[in-house]
Amino acid sequence: MRVLVQNGEDLIETRTFGPGPITIGSGADCSVRLAAREVPARHAVIAPDVDGGWVIESTGNGLPTFLNGRPLHKPTPISNADEISIANFKLIVYGSA
Length: 97
Prior knowledge:
Blueprint: E1 2-7, E2 10-16, E3 22-25, E4 32-33, E5 44-48, E6 54-58, E7 65-67, E8 70-71, E9 76-78, E10 83-86, E11 89-94
Parallel strand pairs: 3-4
Antiparallel strand pairs: 1-2, 1-11, 3-5, 5-6, 6-9, 7-8, 7-10, 10-11
């Protein structure tokens, strides 16, 4: 899976990941680090599902996560070119690795 990370309209990075879980947050140990005070150390996880796709799950820490503009309340499948919004960050996911 490839992930593009933007802060506002500025592209911060593009990363490619293998088959394991992708952690998202402000913590130094996260796969995708969102360096902002309002973002918790571990905010969300993208993980493979049993059908070979991917699912995103928020850690339920109070800061909202949006998938294609809709609030995320439970583990939800993601597809190619989906947009994940966390604070002022936008992550766009493409394909699989």
